[in-house]
Amino acid sequence: MKRFSNLLFATTLAASIVSLGACQKADKKSSDKDTEAAKATDGNKKAGASRPDKTTKGPKPGDLPAPSDVAAPPSDALKTENGVSYKVLTPAKAAGDKPTVNDTVEVHYTGWTTDGVMFDSSVKRGKPATIGLGKVIPGWTEGLQVMSIGEKTRFWIPEELAYKGRRGSPAGMLVFDVELLSIKKAPEAPADVAAPPADARKTGLGVSYRVLKSGDGGEKPREWDKVEVHYSGWTTDGKMFDSSITRGRPAQFAVNGVIAGWTDVLQQMSPGDKWLIWIPEEHAYKGQPRKPSGTLVFEVELLKVTAMPEPPKAPADVAAPPKDAKKTEKGVSYKVLETGDGGAKPLPTDKVEVHYSGWTTDGKMFDSSVTRGRPITFPLTTVIPGWTDGLQVMGVGDKVRFWIPEELAYKGQPGKPAGMLVFDVELVSIKKPIAKKPGAGVANPHAPKPAAVKAQAAKK
Q1: C-alpha to C-alpha distance for 233 and 144, rounded to whole angstroms
Q2: What are the structural domains, with CATH classification, of the chain?
Q3: 242 is catalytic
Q4: Catalytic residue among 155, 176, 285, 334
């Protein structure tokens, strides 16, 4: 649903204190279980989806030999509507379902360029690939829809249906031998996917929904709680872009960690409820690049609610630092809320363990380790400059409020909280780097060679 990537999530960690470093890794466990959607498309890359193995200049050990007709499709080859030539090598034992564009398939395959150089093979790796049929090169999406389970087919895919001259990808016509092992059918697009029906209800935010199944009427999640759901999502033309069903496992995430339309709807559902929802673009991805556009349609089943601690309320002085606030040399204003043990303060080279909550100056909380129920550990060098600077005034046990100006925060980075940011931080512990032993990892040019050592020992 990140990284990753799952299309449901609008800002998984965009609002965290982490710039690019270890904090992201620490927070990731709480919100990225759902983003394991990326693993479902791992096979896509191996099967020529987006970043295949680069073409080599010659065969490597273990490469499969190219077929004799690799240079061009033979005269008896068939052709799909858009120009993919193919030839059945091994027919299916029995006619069966063929995959559709939204389905997920398991295949074994090998790919060659027309000069006979193999550039990728699941057969060589000894592990079949699982791919979403709508997420690979167009020639694969079209070609595999003519196959049945157990069939093995050779495809000749012209460049305009392959990588279209993309740099770093195999060029020209590509030839694939593909064996279709299994098909995992995707949920069918709803009959009313194009628009909500007349009897659809509507939330206060403007999200339309239709109840498909009622659950146990239990406790509804709050915006800071975690939920476990099964879902599928389509654009209004019926094209599925994401589904936990095809991945075979539900998604888990914080209610307030997803697009606004989801946050709105989930708070009105009870465990066991299954709803079909229509989310207008202004409550979905708002035209973000590489995200599905327009109204989005989701079938959502709420499986489980996990209550989380209520997030701290915005401080009364969130809009600006008070007159009695102190200031660091770099310009971070701060105020000590509680004093700890008065011990040593962290150095820039240290790791720290902290609990924190962050707000924009209008009082909107954008991130909190408190609501996740566990502190976060990171090196001071890997966070925004205002954190690196500010945390060095703290001792273990201190609770401090920081007002970090934008130039020491995210500097206007897209998708990150803007303007001055306010953080309440509790320093839980300091983790000093492990000191290296003198001379560790450094060669001593004056050290005698092993042979010389033995010779000296023999003389004694």
Answers
A1: 23
A2: 41-184 (3.10.50.40), 189-306 (3.10.50.40), 326-431 (3.10.50.40)
A3: yes
A4: 285
Amino acid symbol at 262 = W
Query: Which residues have CB under 8 Å from 356's CB, separation 6+?
Result: 17, 367, 368, 369, 370, 376, 423, 424, 425, 426
241 given a catalytic annotation:
yes
290-319: pLDDT as tens digits? 899 999 999 999 999 999 888 899 999 999
Main-chain dihedrals φ then ψ at residue 36, nearest 5 degrees? -65, 5
The answer to whether 86 is a known catalytic residue is no
**334: annotated active-site residue:** no
- What are the structure tokens assigned to 449, written together? 């060679």
pTM score: 0.61
- What is the Cα–Cα distance from 111 to 156, expressed in whole angstroms? 10
Rg of the chain over Cα atoms, rounded to whole angstroms, equals: 28
pLDDT tens for each residue of 402-424: 999 999 999 999 889 999 999 99
Average pLDDT over residues 38-42: 37
Whether residue 155 lies in the annotated active site = no
